[in-house]
Amino acid sequence: MHLVKRIEIIANSFELSKILDSLNKSGVHGHAVIRNVAGQGLREGTEDLDMTMLDNVYIIAFCMPDQLKGVVENVRPLLNKFGGTCYISDVMEIRSVKCIASL
Predict the structure, then answer these.
(1) Which domains does the chain have, with CATH numbers?
(2) pTM: predicted TM-score of the whole model, two decimal places
(3) Among 11, 39, 78, 96, which is most exposed with the fewest C-beta within 10 angstroms?
């Protein structure tokens, strides 16, 4: 097991390609995208995610801790310009090269 950073981004689907490009530019090449995400913002009142007519996406990606600064520098301007939220947390990654069925 080793420590990695989990990056969770909820944004307008229109900006998906820009966000994925920024992650790739930061050296984060793997990700998962869940489309048609609905929800309510944590802040009082309305925000872009609640008011948009376009679908929202949920992006989850993982990176090594030393890659995080580049991710924030590349993703933050997009979220500031187009709206969306990003959460980063510490998680433990377990890599296994053996199939569970072989145990």
Answers:
(1) 2-93 (3.30.70.120)
(2) 0.80
(3) 96
